[in-house]
Automatic annotation (TrEMBL):
Transmembrane segments annotated in the record for this chain: 22-44, 64-83, 145-167
Name recorded for this polypeptide: PTS glucitol/sorbitol transporter subunit IIC
Source superkingdom: Bacteria
BP GO annotations: phosphoenolpyruvate-dependent sugar phosphotransferase system
Gene name, Swiss-Prot/TrEMBL: srlA
Record's keyword annotation contains Transport: no
Organism from which the protein derives: Staphylococcus succinus
């Protein structure tokens, strides 16, 4: 009977921990994401959707802009997870690749720009701690982490383009290269 009671207590504790995490998010990340979303939509309205669409279409034609510049700027200015919202300006054909690249930027830029994804800063700090114990500077590590990340994230986005094309052929679908915003 004791095992059944301990199992029941552990089972309920799992849901209590989930509820505590949910309440914590409601006081931290959810309002932050909501405010960033409002700010981004306000900026879009001030600049004009036509202009944003024009820039996005021009950027979408160039893989360097799609998987290097836009994800980095989006990560730097909007942080994770709001960087993904910029994907709405990508044509359907490039959304999976943009998402792949933008997701990785949330990790590889943390050494120099911890605001991008503070929840994962512990990874960089763990590595940096080892570097410090060796007597090496952590700034070099952060710069290298960023530069390697830029290259790897770009390659990840571009490889996802090829994967998306393969799946298109396999599934006999054609994703649009035109931006279609719903509204």
């Amino acid at each position: 009977m004791e095992y059944v009671v301990k199992f029941a207590e552990a089972f309920i504790k799992l849901f209590q921990t989930g509820a505590d995490t949910f309440i914590d998010w409601m006081g931290t990340i959810v309002p932050l994401v909501l405010m960033l979303l409002i700010a981004m939509n306000t900026l879009i309205q001030l600049i004009g959707e036509e202009r944003i669409n024009f820039v996005a279409q021009k950027s979408a034609k160039n893989p360097l802009m799609r998987y290097l510049v836009l994800p980095f700027l989006g990560s730097f200015m909007l942080a994770n997870p709001m960087v993904h919202s910029l994907g709405r300006f990508m044509p359907e054909k490039y959304k999976p690749s943009y998402f792949a690249s933008a997701s990785q930027f949330a990790h590889t830029s943390n050494g120099l720009f911890p605001h991008i994804n503070p929840a994962e800063l512990f990874i960089f700090l763990g590595i940096a701690n080892g570097i410090q114990k060796l007597g090496l500077p952590t700034t070099d590590l952060a710069v290298r982490y960023l530069l390697v990340g830029l290259l790897v994230n770009f390659i990840g986005g571009w490889v996802t383009d090829f994967t998306t094309s393969f799946v298109e052929k396999q599934q006999k679908v054609k994703l649009s290269k035109e931006i279609k915003l719903e509204g």
